[in-house]
TrEMBL record:
<dbReference type="Pfam" id="PF03831">
    <property type="entry name" value="YjdM"/>
</dbReference>
<dbReference type="InterPro" id="IPR013987">
    <property type="entry name" value="YjdM_N"/>
</dbReference>
<dbReference type="InterPro" id="IPR004624">
    <property type="entry name" value="YjdM"/>
</dbReference>
<feature type="domain" description="Protein YjdM N-terminal">
    <location>
        <begin position="3"/>
        <end position="32"/>
    </location>
</feature>
<feature type="domain" description="Protein YjdM C-terminal">
    <location>
        <begin position="45"/>
        <end position="112"/>
    </location>
</feature>
<dbReference type="InterPro" id="IPR013988">
    <property type="entry name" value="YjdM_C"/>
</dbReference>
<dbReference type="Pfam" id="PF08274">
    <property type="entry name" value="Zn_Ribbon_YjdM"/>
</dbReference>
<comment type="similarity">
    <text>Belongs to the YjdM family.</text>
</comment>
<protein>
    <submittedName>
        <fullName>Alkylphosphonate utilization protein</fullName>
    </submittedName>
</protein>
Amino acid sequence: MSTLPACPKCASVFTYEDGVLLVCPECGHEWSADAADTSSDTKVIRDSAGNELQDGDTVTVIKDLKVKGSSAVVKIGTKVKNIRLVEADHDIDCKIDGFGQMSLKSEFVRKV
């Protein structure tokens, strides 16, 4: 008996073959059996200059950013260390000295 790989999206073990595709009955995800080992559904997040960002990178803010709900402004040139990438509209979670925990858009930062 052959064992099929778990679903790459929801990790369900109840996958089945449908022609040349593998199908997950729980989430409905379909993928190629040939690409099962090499497929990655992770989104590549890039900064304003097109450099690929990764968790733990240090970035610089390239534009004055207003802080929502406050009169404070994150100034241009502010260095942000140890960023964390997330799947959301604001795709960077970070901690900025003097402001605390924040979410930033990758289009307003540049990798150092």
